[in-house]
Specification:
The chain is mainly beta and about 280 residues long. It contains four helices and 14 strands. Strands 2-3-4-5-7-8-9-10-11-12-13-14 form a twelve-stranded antiparallel beta barrel. Strand 8 and strand 9 form a beta hairpin. The radius of gyration is 19 Å and the shape is globular.
Amino acid sequence: MKLVLSLLLFLTTLAAEENYLRERLAKQMTANENHFSLMPYKKNYLVYSQLFAEANTGPYDTAYPTDPVHYDDYELQLQVSLMVPIWLNMFDLPLATYVAYTNRSFWQFFDLDDSQPFRETNHEPEIWLAWFYDFYMGDLNAEMVWLGFEHQSNGQYIELSRGWNRAYLDFYFNYDAFSLSIRPWIAMGDGAHEDEAFNYEKYLGNGEINGVYTWKHFDLGVTWDYSFSGLQYGSVMVDLDIPMSNYVSGYVRYFHGYGESLIDFDYRANTLSAGIVLDTW
């Protein structure tokens, strides 16, 4: 945690002309002029991932004890994430409602002997209300706040089923070239019966803090999913977007902690990934 906080503090001392959040909002507002238009939401990427901790086979061994499962410790990961505005300028106020869907897959692409199986696929539908209040405190700009609801599941059955619901607030700030998002959440009930035994908040955290520093279209991000159960839970991710063209960037990411996928929510992963990411905005 000290390393993450030190890095965030260091980034706030740097100066640049671009700002990730401002650029994102400007492009979003332009796209909003076409109601019900599909827009990128989270990052859309394809990466090669090296798992320094072995691939987690525990849940599969429990579900199929007579049929041992083997996974390589390298794979492809891909994410597709889209959003659409469904109600803009609500009541002639700076309010808007959006829905989104994110699909993230972990593909054993190089396992030709087992027909290149998808090890895990996570689905995340989401809806939120955004308030664009654009408040300034000196050079610090509080851009907006979201109130949202998200469902996350892997679409599996019984022993392999993982899924939970959460409500969240998401506060967005920017300062010069530095953007910050603070997203506390609370787990909601009414999940599947087989998921009630899992303590998702303990491992996946009680919220997320994301900082992005932009320099000449390079975006360096640090994401910390923090858990009230202790610093040994949650996760830290560091990623870098490297500009290549107007539409595609190189993408490098390091993940350490719990919850890289839902099937691994209680399994500590240590993964280095590299590939491409589409221009988010």
